[in-house]
C-alpha cells in the first residue's frame, strides 16, 4: 500500500489522476443512514455516496416509490415513500468499469398506541389474590417490546417476548399477587416500551390509564359469630354498597294510647 504521509499532497493527487488502479482498489460505496426504521406508510431520506471522483453511474435500487431530491457527482439524495413492510435498499456506483453496491434493511414498526390494564377483581379482601392483566392490541416488532406492571412507580413484573413475524400482534402480561392493606393507596398501571435502537430508532413508551384497587378487611371469626346486627355490620364493613348500614335496631312505633 502506498503511504500518502511521505509523498505529500501534490504527489498523492498526481497518483490518483494518473494511476486508475490506485483509486479503483480504494473504491467504496456508502449509504446513510445504515439502519432504517419507519412507521407503516411512512417515508425517509436515503443518501448514496462514493469516494470515486468521477463515477460512471450511480443510483438506488428499491421496489418502493422514490424521488431524487438532490445530486452531485459523488452523492445522491433520495426520498423513499409508502413503506408498508420490511424491505431492503441498495445504493450502487460504477467507477472505472467496476460496480459496487451497499445494502440496508428497512424495518417497519407498529408503536404501542393503546395500552389497557384490567384488575380482577377490583374489590378484594386483604390477603386474597387479585390479577393484573395488561394488553396491547397491535405492536411490532414483538421481540423489541417490554411490558412492565407497576404499583405506583414500583415495577412488579417485566414481560419480554421472543422473535415473531414482522406483522403486528397482540401482547399480554399477567400477574397474580396478594392484596395488602397498602394497595388501596397506590395506582396500578402498565408501561409498554418498544426499544428500536437495534434497528436505528429510539425508545417509545406508552402507559395505560391508572387503575385503583379497593382492599377491605374481613371481620375476625369471633366477630362473625356475634349475634344480632352488630356482628353483621362489622363483617360487611368496607364492602361496596354497605356504607349506609347501621348496627342499631330499626325504630318501631308503639301502640297508640286510648
Automatic annotation (TrEMBL):
Domain of life of the source: Eukaryota
What is the name of the protein in this document?
Intercellular adhesion molecule 2 isoform X2
